[in-house]
Amino acid sequence: MFLQNRLSSWIAGVRRQIALPLRIELWNGQQIDFSTEAPRVTIRLPRASAARYLLTPSLAKLGGAYVEGDIEVHGRAHDMIAIVNALARASLKAEGRVTRVVRGFGHSRTRDAEAIRYHYDVSNEFYQQFLDPAMVYSCAYFETGAEDLAAAQTKKIDHILRKVELRPGQRLLDIGCGWGALLLRAAEQYGARGVGVTLSQNQYQLARQRVRQAGLEHLVEIRLQDYRDVRGEFDRITSVGMFEHVGLRQLPAYFAAIGKLLAADGLALNHGITSTDPDNGATPYGGGEFIEKYVFPRGELAHLGQVLKAMQQGELEVYDVENLRRHYARTCAIWTDNFEANAERARALAGDKRFRIWHIYLAGCSYAFKHDLISLYQVVCGKAGRDPAALPWSRHYMYPAAPAEAAALSAPRPV
């Protein structure tokens, strides 16, 4: 009775603050609606003890209860995430941004490999249920906003390769190469010689298979290898969606490792998710706690300022910084729609619990990017102290010129 009274008080308090298209179904069959609008999300409490998750509805508590099957949540993922965030804001005002936790996990080759295998080695077919055909698992680039996901992912890869001014015959290292899409594009379209490293067995096997199928084994090598064990010199280095696994304390050493592998006149690009909290804290209302527990063990997001500082500590000079937050919000929204469209197959491949994790994880990421809780930056850099005369004067080289502009740029100059 005490718990039910507390729940009734909580419901009344939320209703006074906000109207939501939400229905709560209690263990005794009672239904409570939070607005006159037809409910888009239903939370069912199968037993009285489950009410405790609603009394302090952080994203970690509600998300964890849903994943573990302690509560049932029905509705589209985008609606679920929006409503849970609204409940958290209405109920946990004291928690807000001020309690973003900076964790600082220990990292080692063994621990990092375990974390990568946990996230990526679900199954390749599972990822195919929501990714584009090339299986690019990172922020797409919507140059006009009208592109479909496949086109936007190709444009993202080209955007990266133009930014590092990739040339035929150059040696390219892709740290965290995923299923090999960037390296395949670099070899096919630019004639580059590429090395890709990953810690995921599934990615390694499929990427090697794709290289063989494309007939590019003479240009592309895929390795199951930690980036800290790579040796040699590379003209260009890319790292796309990988440095989130490195750890805040390890960032200077990570960028120093890139600097050691980079040729004196080389260029590197780091593409990664960042925190919008200046103190590198996790996302508010327990979102970061949920991600760390269920999605990316020991993953940590640095603020852009920390990233730039770590690059300088690693003896790299920053040349260009671009914010692609809006692009990742759209990418994750499309992934969520694809995931729900293929829900039956995804559930069969991953099991109920893993299905529920990804169901809210993808939509939660879209929400977080949309509302500036996290961001995404591409940063181009090179060895510190390089002769500035060797660098481009503008960003023109990064963007494909329109036909008229291209003709003007190529026309003879008056003398």
UniProtKB/TrEMBL annotation:
It comes from Rugamonas rubra. Belongs to the CFA/CMAS family. This is Cyclopropane-fatty-acyl-phospholipid synthase. The keyword Transferase applies. The keyword Cell cycle does not apply. GO terms for molecular function: methyltransferase activity. Residues 15-90 form the DUF7884 domain. InterPro entries: CFA/CMAS, CMAS, DUF7884, SAM-dependent_MTases_sf. Keywords: Lipid metabolism, Methyltransferase, S-adenosyl-L-methionine, Transferase. The active site is at C365. GO terms for biological process: lipid biosynthetic process; methylation. Pfam families: CMAS, DUF7884.
